[in-house]
Structures are given as C-alpha cells and as structure tokens.
Amino acid sequence: MASKATTSGICYLVGAGPGDPGLLTLKGKECIESADVLVYDYLCNPEHLRYAKPGTERIYVGKKAGDHTLPQEEINKLIVKLTREGKTVTRLKGGDPVLFGRGAEEAAELHEAGVRFEIVPGITSAIAGPAYAGIPVTHRSHASMLTIFTGHEDPTKPDTSLDYAKLAQADGTKVFLMGVERIEEITGEFLKHGAKPETPMALVRWATHGCQQTLVGTLATMAAKVKEAGFKAPAVAVIGDVVTEREQLNWFEDRPLFGKKIVVTRTRQQASTLSKQLAHLGADVIELPTIRIEPAEDQLEFGQLVQDCHTYEWIVFTSPNGVDAFFTMFDKLYNDARSIGGARIACVGPGTAEKIKARHLAVDLMPEKNFVAEGLVKAFDQHQNMENVNVLWVRGAETREVIANGLTAMGAIVDEAIGYRTVAETEDNLEALARLKNEGADMITFTSASTVEHFLDLHVQLPENCKIASIGPVTSAAIKQYGFNVDVEAKESTIPGLVAAIEKFWK
User: What share of the chain is helix, strand, coil (3-state, %, to 5)?
Assistant: First the structure.
C-alpha cells in the first residue's frame, strides 16, 4: 500500500528516449515544462532541456562506465529532498526509466519517503536503436519473439543471474544493453552454450543520434571487430537473423548529410529551424549560439515610434528579430491588431515575411530573389515614387544603414525604430564549445555578419579542413574580411537556400 504523500511536491521519473529529440514523448515534454528542478543523466539529449521554463534549476547526475557524478544512493536522496521541499522535480533518464534504468529503485525511495511520484515511460533504445539502424527486432520471416537483457548487472552480485544456456537456445531476437565492455565474455557464453557462430549480430552506438555508428558481424566475429574498431559504449546489441534486414532497411544512415558534423551559430531561439532541416538530412548538428538578441536600450523611444506606427505609409522589416521586437511592444500598447492602421508592410525576405503572416497581416512588398537590404531598396524603387513617403524602419542597433540611405536618396522620410540589439552569447554555448573542441566539425554555418564576428570573439580555432557555409553575399563579405574562404554560399539568402546549398556541396 502506497504511503500517503506528505508534501505538495511531486517527482516525475521520465524516460527521455534514446536521443533523437523527436522521440521524447508529449508527456515527457510536459513534465520538463512544468519542472522547478531538472535532474538529468548522461544519456539524456541536452536538447530536451530547452523546454524548461526560465529559472528552472538543472542538476546533472550523469553516470557512465567508471565515472559517476553522483552514486545512485545520493541521487535517490537528492530527488527525495527536492520533492519534500515542495518542488516539481523532473528526473530525466535515457530511454525508458524502468528498463535497466534503476527507475524502480528511485520510485521505491520516493514511496518510502511518502512523497508523490509518477513514472512516465519513454522509448527504449532496445527497440529504437535497431530500428534506426534498419533492423526490426521482430519480423514475420525471422523472429516472432524478442528477449531483452542487460549486459551490465549489479557488480555486487557474486554470480550472474543470466541463464546463458536458455538465452543461447531461445528463439527469436536477442537484444542487450550496456554490454560493450563485456562483449567478448557475452558472445563467448552464447557460443559456449550452443549458439551458432554464424548468427548475425550488430552493435548500434549512440543510437538515434546524428553520430550513430553501426557495426555488423556475427557472434563469432563481433568481439574482434569491436576491438579492431575501438567501438565504445553506449551501444545496443542485436543478435539474430533480423540483422540481415539492415541491407535494405537502413534508412537513417542513408540520408545525404549523414556522418557530417555541422555547426549552427544562430541564436538559440532561431537555431532550431536550420538545425532541424540539417538534422532531417542526416547531419549531426552542434548548436553553438554566438549571439543573443536583447531589447533595445532606449525602450521609450522605440515604444513611441511603435505607438505612432499607424501614421506611416510603410513599415519596413529587415529581420525576423525586428518583427518580434515590434509586435512585443505593439501588444503592450494596443489590444487590437487594427491599431496598425493603413500602413503597408515591406519585408526583406521570406523568413521575415513568415513572421508577419503569422500575425495574419499581409506583406505588400518583398524582393523577388535578392533577399538583402539592397534588394529591398531596389524593390521600392521599382514599386513606386518614394518622394515624401513616410517610412518606419524597424531595425537592430547594429544593422547596416542601407535601407535608410537608399530610401532617403529616393526622397522618402525615414524614421528608424531600433527595436533590438545583438550581444555576444557567453553562457548558453559552453557544452557546444566543448563538443567542437573535442570532436571537431566538417562545416560551420553563418547566417549573418554578427554571427561571424561573435564566433571569432570566442577565440575558438576552426577544426582542420572545416568548411564554411554562408547564407549570402553580405555574410560572405564578413567572413572574407577576416581572412577566411567561403566554401558554400546560398543562392537564395534564406534558411532553405542555405540548406539546399549545403546538401548540394556534399553530394
């Protein structure tokens, strides 16, 4: 019988899935969003932490072979203590929390302490890992039974509780987790107890991540292959004829950018669009935000210009950040979208236009193909006579003066509303910096001159042979100004244009 809860706190024991951010469950995401404290493991994808609300405390308790940040007993005490304090605690565990994840032990401790808890299942790497390697764990032609076991038992036990005689003779597919370090011993036990040496076998390392690796062999050859390849944990192992399906079902590792490590330097909020498109094509993406967008220093002046927006004939937006800044202020001043009046709207390109359309407003003018400030000035010149036309240009503090100079030269009266400023990101990129230094990269992307400048301010040396991709000519000019070559430049200065150029480059 469960103990009666004695505090208002609750601990969610959440399975974070095998690694691919898309494999986190909706319930798991909700638990992260509601958490006061996140306690997370080594195998949890850091991308999941983005869903946390501002101010959420984050505690890393990662464990890997021979290196424990906190012993399990201390983790148990920690989550009990935090929950007793009345906090909402989300304990993120890789894969599923109760499949060899010690989630049941943590739940028992919470029960004994008389605090509330919930177990939130997650997608296990035991099934997802093989699937991402093109190996179905069951198949009508090969296996109608699945056995899952651990290759890493309680080290305090004097003897193994695994019956290798039964495992070796069992029908169907066998999958084991956490056994790479003992691969010679495990395969040896299978062979010793009568398993066929030629039985197909595969190991999938960092399953469902962009850096996934798959090693294929047989029960007889796998130990030697692991040693030769220097294959390390974490990995899931599959034994059985289903491994032969990989040749035709290997979808994940067959994508055009698979095996390419690509750095994205946009702001954390903006990075996801580019990152998702690259990851969809198979890239292993390192999000390294070099800049952060903050409100303009003079909010009073900006607010006055936004308040008077209905008095202008045109409102010009040259970045999605400008749209965000404008409507954040607009919503503080007005509660009716019609307060924008009859002003027509001009945008520099599709990304900015999408932001406007999300407000259910039409875009009246946009360049046909040259999506930079010069292109927008040319579009105005071809669109109408600008003599004495009142224009409100919403811009960032560091933006080039191309719009103001170009429209003023045509006779327009331009007021500049500085809505935001770009500052160096110094806090939200430490983990990504460590990855870049330790793992290197095949390519780095830049989507603005400011991302170039602030990346160089980090004083991080580009990995040898790392290619540079630019979103367009303005960004390319900034890259070349610092003495670097541009290997890839988007024909269309948009995120889809940059992705297309990168894909073409690696073909």
Answer: 40, 20, 40
Q: What does the alpha-carbon distance between residue 315 and residue 389 come to, in Å, rounded to a whole number?
A: 11
CA dist 100 and 148 (Å) reads 10
Q: Which of 1-5, 93-97, 367-371 is predicted most confidently?
A: 93-97
The catalytic position among 29, 77, 81, 178 is 178
Q: Which of 41, 96, 284, 324 is catalytic?
A: 41
CB-based contacts of 342, cutoff 8 Å, min separation 6: 310
Cα 126 to Cα 496: distance, rounded to the nearest angstrom? 35
DSSP state of 219: T
Task: Supply the pLDDT for residue 411.
Answer: 96
Q: pLDDT at position 46, please? A: 82
Instruction: HSE, CB side, 13 Å, CA atoms: give it for residue 93.
Output: 27
d(CA 45, CA 18): 8
* pLDDT-based confidence at residue 208 (cuts at 50, 70, 90): very high
What's the longest Cα–Cα distance across the chain?
91
Evaluate whether 55 touches 29 at the Cβ level (below 8 Å): no
Which of residues 202 and 268 earns the better pLDDT score?
202
CB atoms within 10 A of CB 222: 24
Question: pTM of the full predicted structure?
Answer: 0.79
Q: Give the chain's domains with CATH numbers.
A: 10-123 (3.40.1010.10), 127-254 (3.30.950.10), 261-290+425-506 (3.40.50.10090), 295-422 (3.40.50.10090)
Mean pLDDT, residues 116-134: 97
Give the CA dihedral 294, 300, 305, 307, nearest 10 degrees. 110
Residue 143 DSSP class: B
Strand partners, 201: 217, 239
The single-letter code of the amino acid at 483 is: G
Mean pLDDT of the chain: 91
**Could you read off the pLDDT of 268-319 as tens digits, one per residue?**
666 678 999 999 999 999 988 888 889 999 999 999 999 999 999 999 999 9
In a 10 Å sphere around its CB, with 0-12 CB exposed, 13-18 middle and 19+ buried, how is residue 166 labelled?
Answer: exposed
To the query of whether residue 442 is one of the catalytic residues in this protein, the response is no
Q: Tokens 């230094």 correspond to what residue?
A: 437
63 in catalytic set: yes
The answer to whether residue 155 scores a pLDDT higher than 70 is no
Per DSSP, 461 falls in state P
Active-site entry in 63, 225, 276, 480: 63
Catalytic residue flag (residue 41): yes
- Torsions phi, psi of 100, nearest 5? 55, 30
Helix (H) or strand (E) holding 500: helix 495-506
